Amino acid sequence: MPSLDSRELAEIVGPVAAREFDNAKEIYKADLNSWAQKLADLTDGQFLGECSSAIYNSALVSQFRGNWEHEHFKASACFHEAQRRHVAAGHSAECHGNTLYSEAHAKVMRESGYQPTPAADCNCTKSSRRR
Ligand SMILES: [Zn+2]
């Protein structure tokens, strides 16, 4: 799989993850690059799984010293991709409703024994159209 250049990568993963990618160790970059290219093609179910493990790993490594930008990159990229899927499903970009990322986040919280914050309601025109 040919590597994306930094501009193409930033379009997929968003500005936060793009910065984390730049700061990641070189040895991880090829894998992260091909991981990012597959992100948009995952089914929602597969994507939810990627979100969960990215959120879990990113939170886990925050306890340790060292350069973990490659783990934070995946979580940030998942956040960005979840927003994209949310808008693609008909929500506005400003909608605060639940995304696959917040679903995954709540799942990780529950599995770690924490009480997740309650799911947020969709507040954009998609819900008002439905009512
Ligand atoms: Zn909405």
Which terms summarize this structure?
globular; binds zinc ion; mainly alpha; 67% helix; 131 residues
Write the layout of secondary structure elements.
Elements: H1 6-23, H2 26-39, H3 44-61, H4 69-88, H5 100-111, H6 125-130
Helix pairs in contact: 1-2, 1-4, 2-4, 3-4, 3-5
The structure holds zinc ion.
Characterization of the model:
The chain is mostly helical. The chain has one domain (6-130). Helix content is 67%, strand content 0%. It is built from six helices and no strands. α1 packs across α2, α3 (44-61) runs antiparallel to α4 (69-88) and α3 packs across α5 (100-111). The longest helix is centred in the middle third of the chain and has 20 residues, at 69-88. The mean pLDDT is 93. Residues 91, 95, 97, 122, 124, 126-127 line the site of zinc ion.
Brief synopsis:
The chain has helices at about 5-25, 25-40, 45-60, 70-90, 100-110, 125-130. With about 130 residues, it is mainly α. The radius of gyration is 15 Å and the shape is globular.
Major beta sheet summary: none
Radius of gyration: 15 Å
Fraction in beta strands? under 5%
The average pLDDT value, as a whole number, equals: 93
Question: Which segments are poorly predicted (pLDDT under 50) over 5 or more consecutive residues?
Answer: none
What would the principal axes of the Cα set say about the shape?
globular
Oligomerization category of the chains in this entry: single chain
Domain count, please report it: 1
Q: Briefly note the structural class of the backbone.
A: mainly alpha
CA distance, first residue to last residue:
45 Å
Helices, by number, come to: 6
Helix-strand sequence: HHHHHH
User: How many DSSP E strands?
Assistant: 0
Q: What molecules are bound to this protein?
A: zinc ion
Specify the helix fraction band.
Answer: 55-70%
